[in-house]
């Protein structure tokens, strides 16, 4: 993973993620078509290095998923792609703990033009040269760190250096040298081995592109949902090369695997599908979310937006025929 090619923004794998996002928007529009759209001016924008931030759209025009935009970025501006809008962006922001009223969000300056896209490509072409300079500077200072990737902002006023290290690194002298070399602000960001593997765009043991590089939106801290499941993976035919990924951590795809034991345990719970509609005494409701740990289901009434929490046992007695 020495030669890292970022998998985002204008890459082929970014198109895969955008396609999945468009599919999600179509599904959500069918579920929430009778609800006033909350957070209509909130947009989730994907920037370089697979970073996604929330921005306010000050215009009345709603951007489509995949639209290129110019956004505010720490005293400058940067290039990004709209990843989600409307209800989906608002719910993602809420899940991540952001409050539109309390937290001040940056704004989308304008929609990108062809000249902006061409400038972004030119900036990307400069990054290999910047990377070579950073490597020589790191060797010159004798720092025990591994350079993973570099990012040059669209306005070329800031350079972000991503690295991995097993211990704390004093890079103050390195930052001064890089700042005088590039005449720009330097930001050093330490990342994990999972993030390094995500940027590699390499192939896994299955013969496919790494899931974290192609379609997974959030890297799992621990893909094993249950300790029992983790112990079962470590025995039998599941050797280390089947469990450990290129990041030297458990593979993310294991979090989506279901062994027979787990399937039997979960099949008895009879969880209803998310988004399905049920008719109650108070009217039609949508199954908003399910908490398998507590065996609780949240029903949302589209008429007034009210949410009701009921137990799985109560739901089964109300809607499942015996």
Automatic annotation (TrEMBL):
Pfam families: PSP1 (PF04468). Residues 106-191 form the PSP1 C-terminal domain. Coiled coil: none annotated. PROSITE patterns: PSP1_C. It comes from the Bacteria. GO terms for cellular component: cytoplasm. InterPro entries: PSP1-like, PSP1_C. This is PSP1 C-terminal domain-containing protein. It comes from Prosthecochloris marina.
């Amino acid at each position: 993973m020495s030669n890292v090619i970022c998998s985002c923004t204008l890459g082929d794998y970014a198109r895969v993620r955008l396609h999945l996002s468009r599919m999600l928007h179509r599904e959500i529009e069918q579920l929430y078509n009778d609800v006033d759209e909350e957070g209509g001016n909130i947009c989730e924008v994907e920037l370089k290095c697979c970073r996604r931030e929330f921005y306010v759209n000050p215009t009345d025009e709603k951007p489509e998923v995949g639209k290129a935009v110019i956004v505010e970025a720490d005293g400058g501006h940067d290039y990004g792609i709209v990843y989600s809008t409307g209800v989906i962006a608002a719910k993602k922001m809420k899940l991540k703990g952001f409050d539109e009223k309390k937290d001040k969000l940056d704004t989308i300056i304008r929609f990108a033009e062809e000249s902006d896209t061409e400038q972004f490509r030119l900036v990307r072409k400069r990054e290999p040269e910047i990377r070579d300079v950073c490597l020589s500077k790191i060797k010159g200072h004798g720092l025990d760190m591994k350079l993973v990737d570099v990012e040059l902002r669209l306005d070329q006023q800031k350079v972000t250096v991503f690295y991995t290290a097993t211990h704390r690194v004093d890079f103050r002298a390195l930052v001064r040298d890089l700042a005088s070399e590039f005449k720009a602000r330097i930001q050093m960001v330490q990342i994990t081995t999972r993030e390094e593997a995500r940027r590699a765009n390499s192939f896994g043991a299955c013969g496919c592109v790494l899931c974290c590089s192609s379609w997974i939106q959030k890297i799992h801290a621990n893909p094993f949902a249950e300790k029992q499941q983790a112990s079962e993976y470590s025995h039998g035919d599941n050797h280390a090369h089947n469990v450990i990924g290129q990041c030297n951590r458990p593979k993310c795809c294991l979090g989506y695997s279901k062994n027979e034991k787990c399937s039997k345990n979960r099949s008895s719970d009879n969880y209803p599908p998310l988004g399905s509609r049920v008719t109650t005494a108070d009217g039609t409701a949508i199954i908003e979310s399910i908490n398998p740990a507590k065996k609780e289901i949240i029903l949302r009434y589209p008429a007034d937006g009210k949410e009701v929490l009921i137990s799985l046992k109560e739901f089964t007695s109300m809607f499942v025929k015996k």
